[in-house]
Amino acid sequence: MIEHGAAHSNSICWEDLTTELNEHGIHWDNDTLTAAIREALQILRTEDEQVGQPLTADPVVAEIVQPEPDVVDVVPVSQRPDYDGDEWYTPVEYIEAARAVMGAIDLDPASCALAQTVIKAGAYLDRGDNGLGQRWICERIWLNPPYSDPAAWITKLVAEFDDKTFVRQAVVLVNNATETAWFQMLLNRFPACFPSRRIAFWRHDHEGITARQGQTVFYLGTNIAQFAKTFGEFGPVLRRMA
User: Fold this and answer.
1) Is the distance from CB of 206 to CB of 155 less than 8 angstroms?
2) What is the 3-state secondary structure (H, E, C) of the chain?
């Protein structure tokens, strides 16, 4: 703010202005100089405000590209169009236990190429081979029957074992459907392991999903002591007493 008064006229700055103007033949008084300074300050303020104004042209706005969110497949595997409830495969620890009891797995009559990446049987039959319609001409059988029709496979297994022509041993993994005739047939004749937890089967698009019910492993053969020792690691091994 510019103030009137002697303080300005007696200051060094005021004296310098007076001398400079007088040399150019310009005579002034306090009021005239004060008005001139105010006008100059107003011009400076106007220029400063114009510098701070936005440009009249449309500014360039950078396009912000949001990353695509991760696609989460929320459809349960059992509801997918290609789902097959029979295509669930046994984890390796049970396969290795069966191999330890029997010495090897010669035939897996209800299998597929993917399951064999773990089972590694000497031979296997898939759906196209129709394992129910063929003789099982091998001594040691691993069987995880299709859960859509276990009765037919258990009947076939017991018939091949009782024939005593080829099959000498078998390890079979089934759901513990204790009320069914085929389960009772196995339980009446053969030792059974009842795992203490549900088995986490695997398939090509899922792994480690725990089954919806418990399972039982039966052994057909004479190496019962080895079966009890090996599969006893998974749960109690029981046999009908009378």
Assistant:
1) no
2) CCCCCHHHHCCHHHHHHHHHHHHCCCCCCHHHHHHHHHHHHHHHHHHHHHHHCCCCCCCCCCCCCCCCCCCCCCCCHHHCCCCCCCCCECCHHHHHHHHHHHCCCCEECCCCCCCHHHHCCCEECCHHHCHHHCCCCCCEEEECCCCCCHHHHHHHHHHHHHHCCCCCEEEEEEECCCCCHHHHHHHHHCCEECCCCCCEEEECCEEEEECCCCEEEEEECCCHHHHHHHHCCCCCEECCCC
pTM over 0.85: no
Distance from C-alpha of 41 to C-alpha of 33, rounded to nearest angstrom: 12
Q: Which two tokens stand for residue 170?
A: 């078998």
Q: Which of 146, 33, 174 is nearest to 85 (CA)?
A: 146
Higher per-residue confidence, 43 vs 164: 164
Q: How far apart are CA 220 and CA 102, in angstroms?
A: 10
d(CA 182, CA 189): 11
**Mean confidence (pLDDT) of the chain:** 80
- To the nearest whole percent, how much of the chain has pLDDT over 90? 55
In this prediction, residue 16 carries a pLDDT of 67
* Close Cβ partners of 113 (under 8 Å, ≥ 6 residues apart): 126
